[in-house]
Write a structure and sequence with these properties.
Low-confidence stretches of chain B: none
Order of helices and strands of chain B: HEHHEEHH
Radius of gyration of chain B: 18 Å
Distance between the termini of chain A: 37 Å
Strand content of chain A: under 5%
Shape of chain A: rod-shaped
Helix content of chain A: over 70%
Oligomer: heterodimer
Largest sheet of chain A: none
Largest sheet of chain B: 3 strands, antiparallel
Number of helices of chain A: 7
Strand content of chain B: 5-15%
Radius of gyration of chain A: 25 Å
Number of helices of chain B: 5
C-alpha cells in the first residue's frame, strides 16, 4: 500500500521528464528514489508506520508535477538553434552544387541537383526536425 | 519576525553546503536542515533542478560513486568556479547587509562626519 503510493508519486514525476533522453531520465529517477527511500527510512526509524513515513517523505519532497517540470526544464541541454542548422544545411547544398557545377562528372543538371541534395540529406533532415520540434514546443506552450 | 528563505536562495545554500566537501543530494538536504529551520519550508525536491542548473553553469560537478555495500550514488562537488562564485555571493551579501544596517541603525553614525 505504502509502496504503491511511492511508486505512484515517482511515476507522476517521471511523466514530466519528457524532454530528457531515456538514460538521463533513468538517472534522475534512481537519484530521486534513493532520496525518498532515505526519507522514509528516517521517519520509520523515528517509530512512524510505513504508510505515514511515505506520506511524510512525499510531503517533504514537494509536489511531483511541479518538481518534475522544473527538473525537466533545468536538465535539458541547450539546443542548437534550428535556423542556424538550416543555414548550415543550405550552405552544404550550395557548396555541393558549386563542386558539381565546375566538374563534368554528373553530366546533367538534374543529377547534379539530386546528388547535391542527397549528399546533404543528413544535415537537412536534422534542420527540418529541429524546426518542426521547436514549432511544436512553442505551440504546446501557448495552449 | 523572521524572514523566510526564498527559492532563489537554494543555489547559494547548496554552494555553502558543498564548500565543506562533496555530498549526495539527500545529505545536502540534511545539512541545510541542520543549519536553518526556515529552509525546511523549501521542498527538498527543489534541490535537484537547482543542482542541474549549477552544474550547467559549471559551479558544481557530479559523479556517480560506486559504494561497496549498496547502490551507486550521485555525489556533488564544488568546482573552482563554484568556490569563486560563492565568495562573490558572500561579499555581495555582506555589503548589502552593511548598507541595510546603516539605514536601520542610523544612530551608529555621526551625521557631522558624513559631510566631507
Amino acid at each position: 500500500m505504502a509502496q504503491s503510493q511511492l511508486d505512484h508519486y515517482l511515476a507522476t514525476l517521471e511523466a514530466r521528464l519528457k524532454g530528457l533522453p531515456p538514460a538521463r531520465r533513468q538517472e534522475e529517477m534512481v537519484e530521486i528514489r534513493q532520496h525518498l527511500e532515505a526519507l522514509v527510512a528516517g521517519h520509520q526509524g523515528a517509530g512512524v508506520s510505513e504508510e505515514a513515513a511515505v506520506a511524510a517523505a512525499i510531503r517533504q519532497f514537494g509536489h511531483a508535477e511541479q518538481i518534475g517540470q522544473e527538473l525537466n526544464k533545468a536538465s535539458q541541454l541547450p539546443r542548437l538553434r534550428p535556423f542556424f542548422l538550416l543555414l548550415v544545411a543550405i550552405l552544404t547544398v550550395v557548396v555541393n552544387l558549386v563542386i558539381f557545377a565546375v566538374n563534368d562528372n554528373p553530366d546533367t543538371w538534374f543529377t547534379k541537383f539530386v546528388l547535391a541534395f542527397s549528399f546533404s540529406a543528413g544535415i537537412l533532415a536534422l534542420a527540418v526536425a529541429e524546426i518542426v520540434q521547436s514549432y511544436l514546443r512553442t505551440r504546446h506552450k501557448s495552449t | 519576525m523572521s524572514q523566510s528563505l526564498s527559492r532563489g536562495d537554494v543555489p547559494t545554500l547548496i554552494l555553502a553546503v558543498l564548500k565543506h566537501g562533496p555530498l549526495h543530494g539527500y545529505a545536502i538536504a540534511r545539512a541545510i536542515e541542520e543549519w536553518s529551520a526556515d529552509a525546511l519550508h523549501l521542498h527538498e525536491g527543489t534541490l535537484y533542478p537547482a543542482l542541474r542548473q549549477l552544474e550547467k553553469q559549471g559551479m558544481i560537478q557530479s559523479t556517480w560513486e560506486v559504494q561497496e555495500p549498496g547502490p551507486a550514488r550521485r555525489v556533488y562537488a564544488l568546482t573552482e568556479a563554484g568556490r569563486t562564485e560563492f565568495v562573490k555571493r558572500v561579499e555581495a551579501w555582506e555589503s548589502y547587509s552593511t548598507a541595510i544596517n546603516a539605514i536601520l541603525n542610523p544612530r551608529r553614525k555621526r551625521y557631522g562626519s558624513v559631510t566631507a
